[in-house]
């Protein structure tokens, strides 16, 4: 599944290339709670066709109604539109209590600039797009860090290539995790040189490669929008892949396994490969959030939840980690010694 921003821009560019009138709508400010974050975009065509979203749906319905009734369509310079100033309006549009949303409306964006932006995203570049409100001047430049801001004179948004996920291992858990990642807008690559696993891979949209994991990680060229998760439980496959991933700018590097396996993995990386403590601290393991998961789908939910939280800059309390939760819930030696035989088993 294509990243939603790229899908919106690609669709809008197609509409404009066909000579259709269409509008780009961007969330530029929020006050209180908001259904969609700053920088979210949608495209709205003159006949009411829409792709993307800026709210839970009610604001989209109002925009469609306002800009299609009687054939009317906004013309001229980009302008700002605010929803949810009053409690009544916030309730009407399904905004949370006290929520206010300010949107930038850009009528008929330049087709060539849209095409250039989509092309840059396809090439894997992070792009800064600035809209000057006074005269509608748009500038698009490559950037190194995401930025979304609005002033009285300018609105800036950042568009980047899709986030990428590399999974080491093509088992049942990888199938569940790949499916969730695809629906979350990630581009997914799965690496497994083992015929017994790779030969049965069947997740459409996730690319399967058969090389050795450390070589695949190097070829993957992980960047700050990339994640690498090792799922095989096989040190020969996982360790070298993690070694390379930890040297990269990937925002998330993790591995499945018990607390004992994780401790052994960290010891191997330190003793045999000289990985220092600071680098090893980047390794997430046992990977995921503790939700009492047992089955591959449940474990995939646990991993995906942690991965998305890290991606979105959420500081997770340590008590949510698998390690701390299991240590907290594990029976003490005294409990085990005094428990009836059936319970202890």
UniProtKB/TrEMBL annotation:
<dbReference type="InterPro" id="IPR027051">
    <property type="entry name" value="XdhC_Rossmann_dom"/>
</dbReference>
<protein>
    <submittedName>
        <fullName>XdhC family protein</fullName>
    </submittedName>
</protein>
<dbReference type="Pfam" id="PF02625">
    <property type="entry name" value="XdhC_CoxI"/>
</dbReference>
<feature type="domain" description="XdhC Rossmann">
    <location>
        <begin position="165"/>
        <end position="307"/>
    </location>
</feature>
<dbReference type="Pfam" id="PF13478">
    <property type="entry name" value="XdhC_C"/>
</dbReference>
<feature type="domain" description="XdhC- CoxI">
    <location>
        <begin position="15"/>
        <end position="83"/>
    </location>
</feature>
<dbReference type="InterPro" id="IPR003777">
    <property type="entry name" value="XdhC_CoxI"/>
</dbReference>
<dbReference type="InterPro" id="IPR052698">
    <property type="entry name" value="MoCofactor_Util/Proc"/>
</dbReference>
